[in-house]
Design a protein that fits this description.
- The chain is α/β, with parallel strands linked by helices.
- It has helices at 48-51, 70-82, 101-113, 128-140, 154-160, 198-215, 217-225, 227-231, 235-255, 276-285, 293-310, 318-328, 340-348, 376-385; strands at residues 24-31, 34-41, 60-65, 86-91, 122-126, 147-151, 165-170, 173-180, 185-189, 358-364, 367-372.
- The protein has a seven-stranded mixed beta sheet, sandwiched between helices. A two-stranded antiparallel ribbon has the order 7-8. Strands 10-11 form a two-stranded antiparallel sheet.
- Strand 10 (358-364) and strand 11 form a beta hairpin.
- It binds nicotinamide-adenine-dinucleotide (NAD).
- The site of nicotinamide-adenine-dinucleotide has 30 residues, from helix 4, helix 5, strand 8 and helix 6.
């Protein structure tokens, strides 16, 4: 649409720049099919036209969004229009309700009506549920069209919008239908988090903590130092933390794009499931209500750290460190009374465990490994320990 020579490309302006509202950091994700940038900073939705890579042949953009972020979709649409694209806003339900085949079928119908073509991007504006559903539509519409992810939740910025996993839920379970489809760019505008409910922010902070715990001890230290402003949603405090968490995810995805490493080796994509085996089980038992994903993952990480200590993989102190960090972020670390039998049964039905229950455990912060689950008694004791309020 816009000749490459006329396009202004975003520059990597990081710390020290005079005006924090215009700074942006760039992290590149490298995959077998090429790479893409993840931009992180403030005020970026208004500068989308500068930050996007060329979209050869594109004439239109389908902007998929949910009602709570309509104003952000509008801002993105204005920038896309400046690129000469005809902008078509396509609304989907908020949250997990978007991740249904009927919703994706509705998107296909609207994409056909516009009509959009092979070169026209789907631009997803929203949390992980929106980017997952819109991403799946982009992966399958005309056998795949370019996808731009504009995450508006912290979890979306550090996790869901990056890495190419897209999909929808079925009554039989979450994320059972999907496709790998990498975006052509991800733009994480920290100012978009302004209206995010605190519980959603905390949920995202659990994933930032996870990224640090599995892959970056410096991020863990930075998160501990900046816990209060980060938990309050201060975008300047969040910026370096989001960037570091994105670097962890980018490195893992670059090394194991399709989770082919099957849990073997230090760079298996499976390490991103740290805290998720118990976390998913708790979410399932809670019927996906009352417990946000990140809160369940926080409990799952405390559980995993206690298991790692109990089997002698990690030195004593790992779990205490987890508790201090997660508590400072406002995340739950105990006082949840669970029936170990029920939890173990829910853990065993996780779709990722077809070869027997495996857990991601840490030898220490930044040194994850995927191991067969230890003896039942160890698991039961660690589940029971979550009933206590750690000192
Ligand atoms: N594809 C992946 O690799 C991957 C990774 C992790 C999680 N996920 C998926 O992500 C989903 C969870 O994503 P999430 O935690 O971002 O939640 P979400 O997408 O459900 O969003 C939570 C709520 O916040 C609203 N919202 C979003 N941005 C907002 C903003 N800026 N201001 C106000 N409200 C806003 C949403 O409309 C929704 O109601 C799950 O479906 C999960 O399976 C995918």
């Amino acid at each position: 649409v816009v000749p490459a020579s006329r396009r202004r490309h975003g520059r990597s302006l990081t710390s020290g720049a005079a005006n924090p509202t215009t700074t942006a950091a760039r992290v590149d994700v490298t995959t077998a099919h090429g790479g893409y940038p993840v931009w992180i900073g403030r005020g970026l939705l208004g500068r989308l036209d500068e930050l996007l890579p060329p979209l050869p042949g594109a004439e239109a953009a389908a902007v998929v969004f949910a009602p709570p972020v309509a104003h952000l979709a509008d801002r993105a649409g204005q920038a896309l229009a400046r690129l000469g694209l005809a902008v078509h806003p396509l609304q989907v339900p908020a949250g997990e309700d978007a991740k249904r085949l009927q919703v994706v079928a509705g998107l296909y119908e609207r994409l056909a009506r516009v009509p959009t073509h092979r070169a026209d991007p789907v631009v997803a504006v929203g949390g992980g549920a929106t980017t997952d559903a819109a991403g799946f539509a982009a992966a399958t519409w005309l056998r795949g069209v370019p996808l731009v992810n504009l995450p508006t939740t912290l979890l979306g910025m550090v996790d869901a919008a990056i890495g190419g996993k897209t999909g929808v839920d079925l009554p039989a379970g979450k994320n059972l239908v999907g496709a790998f489809h990498q975006p052509v760019a991800v733009v994480a505008d920290l100012d978009a988090l302004a209206g995010l409910p605190p519980v959603e922010l905390r949920s995202g902070l659990a994933e930032v903590a996870k990224a640090g715990l599995v892959g970056d001890p410096d991020l863990v230290a930075a998160l501990a130092t900046a816990a209060a402003p980060a938990a309050a949603g201060d975008p300047d405090a969040l910026a370096p933390l989001v960037e570091a968490a994105v670097r962890v995810k980018a490195a893992v995805v670059g090394a194991d794009e399709r989770e082919a490493a099957g849990g073997e080796g230090p760079v298996s994509r499976a390490i991103l499931n740290y805290g998720h085996t118990l976390g998913h089980a708790l979410e399932r038992l809670a019927g996906y209500q009352g417990l946000r994903h990140g809160e369940a993952v926080a409990l799952g990480m405390v559980f995993a750290a206690r298991v790692a200590e109990a089997v002698g993989l990690a030195a004593p102190g790992l779990a205490r460190g987890h508790v201090e960090l997660l508590r400072a972020l406002g995340l739950p670390v105990g006082t949840v009374r669970l029936d170990p039998e029920e939890v173990l049964a829910a853990m065993a039905t996780d779709k990722k465990h077809h070869r027997g229950l495996r857990l991601v455990l840490l030898r220490e912060v930044g040194r994850p490994m995927v191991v067969p689950a230890p003896d039942r008694e160890v698991l039961v004791a660690a589940i029971r320990s979550l009933a206590e309020a750690p000192g």
